[in-house]
Specification:
By secondary structure, the protein is of the alpha/beta class. Helices cover 36% and strands 21% of the residues. A seven-stranded mixed beta sheet has the order 5-4-3-6-7-9-8, with helices on both faces. Strands 1-2 form a two-stranded antiparallel ribbon. The protein is built from ten helices and nine strands. The radius of gyration is 20 Å and the shape is elongated. The protein folds into two domains: 4-63, no CATH class; 86-274, Vaccinia Virus protein VP39 (Rossmann fold), CATH 3.40.50.150.
């Protein structure tokens, strides 16, 4: 009879630093238990049904499918979010946007916009931390808007809302104290697009022209029409794009332009303020 310890030790997964974690997450899901249960009861015999489900999860992971898509869940900030293949998987690096936004603006009432919201991760994290903010997330993909709304309903965050819009296309006349975005920023010929988890993620959420900056250019150009006086625009970008994004912000007329570093020491986000 196979035990929890046996199944984990024998799990065949792609060689990576997260292989053991992946196996634990998949087995815990197959059992309907937590990872702490696995450590507490390593000698527990696993039923045939749970073993078969675990084997099916392993096969999908061996084929390269991200664990988040297999489980349909991903943690972000303090939230547990539903994810699906038509949205980007929320990543820890993007939490820098949330941290910076919370440092930048006071907890007093404000309107905040999350462009290209996907799962709703950024919008919901901000709404959770700042009950006085009204946070709107928009996405051009209808399935993403529906998924973000499901996450909002499950988290019971009444100060967040989601709407369909191709960037600013459906926001005429609306202004915000803060606009945040994790837009596509990978160059179309980047070889990493054929490697790892990103092979399974929607290219529309990853790729943005030859240099990866097409969508960022559009956002920087159009954002001033939707910012209140003194409002901020904050963008996530590639680790080597900070200089180019700061130049775009400065050329457009933004002030107080700077970049912030992620936990790996890379300049991961850039921001600037707008005076009407």
């Amino acid at each position: 009879m196979a035990t929890i310890m046996t199944l984990l030790n024998e799990a065949q997964l792609p060689d990576s630093p997260s292989a053991r974690l992946d196996a634990e997450l998949l087995l815990a899901a197959a059992l309907g238990k937590s990872r702490s249960f696995l450590r507490t009861w390593p000698e527990r015999v696993v039923s045939r049904e749970a073993r078969d489900l675990f084997d099916s999860f392993l096969a999908r992971r061996q084929a390269g499918e991200p664990v988040a898509y297999i489980l349909g869940r991903q943690g972000f900030w303090s939230l547990d979010l539903e994810v699906a293949p038509h949205t980007l998987i929320p990543r820890p690096d993007t939490e820098l946007l949330v941290e910076t936004a919370l440092d930048l603006l006071p907890a007093t009432p404000a309107r905040v916009l999350d462009l290209g919201t996907g799962t709703g991760a950024i919008a919901l994290a901000l709404a959770c931390e700042r009950p006085g903010w009204q946070v709107l997330g928009v996405d051009r993909v209808a399935e993403a808007v529906a998924l973000a709304e499901r996450n909002r309903e499950r988290l019971d965050l009444a100060n967040a809302a989601f709407r369909s819009s191709q960037w600013f296309s459906e926001l005429a006349g609306e202004r915000f104290s803060l606009i945040v975005s994790n837009p596509p920023y990978i160059p179309s010929a980047d070889p990493h697009l054929a490697q790892g988890d990103v092979r399974f993620e929607p290219s529309s959420a990853l790729v943005s022209g030859a240099d990866g900056l097409d969508d960022i250019r559009l956002i920087v150009e159009q954002a001033p029409a939707h910012l209140e006086n003194g409002g901020w625009l904050m963008l996530e970008h590639g680790f080597d794009q900070a200089d180019a994004v700061r130049d775009l912000l400065l050329t457009r007329g933004f002030a107080h332009v700077e970049s912030r570093r992620d936990l790996g020491g890379h300049q991961r986000i850039s921001l600037g303020s707008w005076t009407c």
